[in-house]
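PROTEIN DATA CARD
Card holder: Rhodopsin domain-containing protein
Chain length: 247
Origin: Coleophoma crateriformis
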Amino acid sequence: MSLFALLLCQGGVGLHLADIKGLDVPWVEHNIRMLLGFQVTYNFSVYLAKLSILSFFLMFIPRGTFTRTAAICTVWAVSLMLPIKLIVFALQCVPYAKAWNPALPGKCVNTEVFLYFVTGYHILTDIIIFVLPIKILAGINRKPRDKLLLLALFGVSFFAVIIGCIRIYAINLSFISTDFSWDEAPILIWSMLEGAVGIFCGSVPAMKPLFSRGQISQTMTANLELSTAFYELKRRPSSATTLVVHV
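Structure generated from the sequence above:
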């Protein structure tokens, strides 16, 4: 995803149209192709992040509960939506060249409406994923401090809901803009940030021990021992010096 965003930036995204040289059909074709690659990788990254979080939830949610049923339904919902999005993005125009050359005969789907639908769908699933662990975390047998820490870490997932709302505004701005190369940049930024938040939330179970007092103390002790060993090694004479002393 970052690679396609970089290629789009090299192609002029983030610049005003007046500052871009060589603004022609090949330029538009290059950017649309890179945008397709960005859309595919973006949707894959968001899907895998949500699948990781939901899979973690299913490890602890008791069987036969409404929460588990809701989690399984959400897994199916995001899994079935992925191929639909990929097919629509890949076949948004028939022939595909019509996407950058409207003069060609053919048809194109209304990508604006579809992007609004997809973004709203992401927001809905993000809200569900944010709500699902609240009851589980509140009922676990842990210290209040540990519960608050876990709730705070998983609460970061609500930031994805905020990002989704901002993306809707950015998408609307890009479709009504007359300076689309400039107004396309916020969509790339917020999309990559949403992917980063998803990766962070999916990594929360592995990150939690890093913030425990025992782990912090152990890490500080290991760093101190390593520094002491390195200092003693520097003071120790080399093998060549030792050989001269013995001779």
